[in-house]
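This part of the workshop introduces the protein records we will be handling. The structure tokens are whole numbers drawn from a learned vocabulary of backbone shapes. The record below serves as our worked example for the rest of this section.

===
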Amino acid sequence: MKNIFRYTAILLVLAVALLSCKKSFLDKPALDATTLDNYYNTPEEVRGLTSTLYGLPWAGYENRAMDAIGDVMAGNEYTGGGDDPPFLNFSFASTSVRIADAWKVFYKIGGWTSEYMNALELKKSKGGNAAFLDPAIAECHFFKGTVYFYIARIWGDAPIVNNPGATILSGDFNIPRYFKADVLRFALEELKKAEAGLPETDGPGRVTKYSAKGMMAKLYLYRKDYDSAKTKALEVINSNKYDLFPNYGAMFNSSSNNNNIESLFSIQHQLTGNPWGSGNQKNPDRGPGNLQTSEASMWELYIPSIDIINAFESGDLRRKGSMMEHGWSYPQWKPQNSNATYNAFMANGYKYDTLQPVGDGGQKNTTRANIAKYVVGPGSAFGGESVLGMNTGINTMMLRYADILLIYAEAVLGTNASTTDASALAAFNKVRTRAGLNTKSSLTIDDILHERRVEFAFEGDYWFDIQRQGFTKAKQIIEAQDRGTFGNPVHVTFSQNYMHLPIPAGEVLQDPALAQPPVAYY
């Protein structure tokens, strides 16, 4: 487990009480003259600290691991390369790069939040202003609760490291795995503290009390605590602070719609003047190769699966907002390259065409489709917004109001075979109405799971919806999917050992206790 603590080492300069630590990998000079006496004296200084939790630390998960775990494994995306196909056919191992990257992200953020809270609490004890220190501490609780929610869902039984500084000082790195139920309880307790301490409103991009309520609703639903999920989702709904963004596709193709009325929590990105720390790198992994320009890289590592293409109902407006298929166009984008035929074909704007020869403007990958979500285009010189190679300024939405509505509908359904409850139907049908679809008069769990799949396609969420159904239902869903390519259907066999990911091999090597049976945390 030493790797977990290494990620927090730089932050220990903030927690001056811990600076006597002598571990070699922490034996570094302070990077600046910041101390608790001369800093964190203004709201701006404190918010500058917590703003670092919104962007760059998420990169190792957001960039690729999120696709591999949330959508490739779920049957929504097809992929090639060397690191991702094992998630397509369920042959991944503990040496997986994607698994290691996700692990580093979540425990890094967990460690950062712990040390931030320690430093801010110490600042309060030295006379710091609780009026702006307490909300910052609550922000940290939100992020800690959120990452442990991910940890529980991805790995199941897993370590809980609540005070990495104290662990470093103790020199005892034999951290065990704790039961999944305890990890979820720990996450929930953190989110409750966030709910209690966060403001009802804040500036664009900042999490609020309702962000915490929404994440709690999602966690309660995962635990099948339907009454609590319903209560928390309803509190968000009744706040009247959120709504569905009118244009579904526009949420995902322009940074001008960042932090819109539908977003409860987003990973923050900007290209210039960036207080958050990073750009979004989904554009090249999803964008079609024939959209590449001198400004924007495109290599389409992840593409829609045949199964998700077939999942959309006729007339569903989300289809065009989620995927590029033959006939899809975006007139504002006017990409150019050295091929005159290509330039003539794209003269009136980008066209997705599977009949035109590849190289002359055609696009013909193995599933005949590309992901449209989080693709902002070919760059500002070609009719789009600014793109710097791999990087764009669009945020990644991690919790949307549409999720709250569907959580509410499912919580009302609970363990019943179906429901005609008016409030559940109103919430559910509001999502369908935006999609241009007919409303339903009765709901089953399969109705809700289908709606969630197409609503959140390519957003890294569907795997968790499959997993929380339990092994028997998950096996049925996965084995029914076509995980192949155009004209070449492929079906896989799913076994229970793939319900959770293995702990990275490098972590077990450094902490053999991780290979032992889990124990109780509480």
